[in-house]
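Researcher: I'd like a structural prediction for the single chain below. Treat it as a standalone chain; there are no partners to consider.
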Amino acid sequence: MQEKNAARVAELMEDVRRLFKEHVTGWGEAPGLPLTKIIILREIGRESGMSVSGIGRRTGLSKGYISVIVDQMEADGLVEKRPDPDDQRRVCIRLKEKGGQLYASLGERYRGFWADLLEDVSEDEGAEIVSGLERLRAALARQTQEDANGFLPENDKGE
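Model: Treating it as a single chain, here is the predicted structure.
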């Protein structure tokens, strides 16, 4: 990709992230949840039994902060913490019934938001958006795997 296009993609992704965050910040007001709790709820709903570390990797939030929020969510009856049967040092976090219902409700709202937003997009344009996002996700996943395997770009090797 040309450097000019790469810069434009970076700019657009930041704009989309900011605008989306501004829009969804109010979503938690109805159930009385701040955005951070919604984000953590979403991650646990996507993968039941996640650890605090796993949530941190996916969200970029600190483990200490996540632990505090998860304790609050447990007190609110949204989640439960259980020892991992394979590793007693690890705690698995799962949605309780109330948390599952809230996760489903927020998911419906989320899908409805995107359906309304993309209502005027043609089938072909929608397919292009999906294809582009899938390619971007795959590229990011490859880069994440390379980073996990010790890959560093030339200018980051400290040489």
